[in-house]
Write a structure and sequence with these properties.
With about 170 residues, the protein is mainly α. Helices cover about 95% and strands about 0% of the residues.
Length: about 170
């Protein structure tokens, strides 16, 4: 223990201070290494999340474009079918107008031929022809408008079903 007394006390304090400072410096270096590793992991995680978000956005955009394309195609198909149905309805209306003209001609002919028949028979026959002709005209008009409305409704429903099926 002789040699320990030869070293002055301030040297012991200096040695203790150097050892404590060295230990602290070692801890700082380890902490900086851990921090750098954590920052690297965080950067990798952020890049991974960013890439995942980009892929999800691209997938959503692709799906939205696909759905819009399906809806546009079905809408165009429905529009063409409606135009075709309107053309058919116009043709049917033209034919119905011809039938109405024929009914009017038959009524006029009936009136002309009924002048020779007795007054009572003429009234009963004329009223029956007039009533039946009126009913036929009215039912023909109504059937045409109902057929057109039904065709439009059917085309719209089919287009809606096709869009719904295509979007899924």
């Amino acid at each position: 223990m002789n040699w320990l007394g030869a070293v002055p006390a301030w040297c012991w304090w200096l040695i203790a201070l150097v050892l404590v400072a060295g230990g602290q410096q070692y801890r700082v270096v380890i902490a900086q290494g851990d921090t750098a590793a954590a920052r690297g992991e965080l950067a990798d995680y952020r890049m991974e999340v960013s890439e995942r978000d980009r892929r999800a956005a691209a997938k959503a955009r692709t799906e939205e474009q696909r759905r819009q394309t399906v809806a546009d195609e079905e809408g165009e198909s429905a529009r063409k079918k409606l135009e075709l149905a309107q053309g058919r309805a116009a043709g049917a209306e033209s034919a119905a107008d011809g039938l109405r003209g024929e009914i009017a001609r038959l009524r006029a002919g009936h009136r002309a031929t009924c002048d020779t028949i007795a007054a009572q028979q003429r009234q009963a026959g004329a009223s029956a022809v007039v009533v039946l002709g009126g009913l036929l005209e009215e039912s023909d008009r109504m059937a045409g408008s109902l057929a057109e409305a039904l065709e439009r409704s059917r085309i719209a429903g089919l287009a809606c079903e096709a869009i719904s099926a295509g979007v899924r």
